[in-house]
């Protein structure tokens, strides 16, 4: 009668499933917590103006309006271009703080109606501190930024 030795079948193995789970969790954590700069996404051509920028004490609430008249409040895109949609987006981002400075950054080619709609939504919500972003005036003979 032959008795076999089963100890040879118990070869050590490295289980990769827990390692893959940990790496996937770390990857999801880093993707979710990464902040993206909204200015790098949209290419705006700001209107030109002379003057020095005002010093802000707190981070202003930003409204970006691109050349097609689309709105971006903070880092969110407003899906529709009507006043009510813009008001809902502003309320979601700003909450109840109406003393916060609002910075409107509209492209120079933006339809004027889109800017007026933004002012209308801000006025209806009670925002009183509104500023417009501009680019510095280009001096003759100087290169454009």
Number of strands: 7
- Per the CATH scheme, the topology name of the domain at 38-136 is Nucleotidyltransferase, domain 5
Overall 3D form = elongated
- Give the number of helices: 4
Strand order of the largest sheet: 4-3-2-5-6
The CATH architecture name of the domain at 38-136 reads: 2-Layer Sandwich
Radius of gyration: 27 Å
The run of helices and strands is HHEEEEHEHEE
Structural class call reads alpha/beta
Distance N to C terminus: 91 Å
Report low-confidence residues grouped into runs of 5 or more.
Answer: none
Question: What is the beta-strand fraction?
Answer: 15-25%
Tell me, rounded to a whole number, the average pLDDT: 81
The CATH class of the domain at 38-136, by name, is: Alpha Beta
Describe this structure in words.
This protein has 145 residues and is an alpha/beta fold. It has a domain at 38-136: Nucleotidyltransferase, domain 5 (2-Layer Sandwich), CATH 3.30.420. The protein has 4 helices and 7 strands, in the order H-H-E-E-E-E-H-E-H-E-E. The protein has helices at 17-33, 38-41, 83-94, 112-125; strands at residues 48-49, 61-65, 71-73, 76-77, 102-106, 130-132, 135-136. The strands form 2 sheets. A 5-stranded mixed beta sheet has the order 4-3-2-5-6, with helices on one face. A two-stranded parallel sheet has the order 1-7.
Layout of strands and helices, then pairs:
Blueprint lengths: L16 H17 L4 H4 L6 E2 L11 E5 L5 E3 L2 E2 L5 H12 L7 E5 L5 H14 L4 E3 L2 E2 L9
Parallel strand pairs: 1-7, 2-5, 5-6
Antiparallel strand pairs: 2-3, 3-4
Helix pairs in contact: 3-4
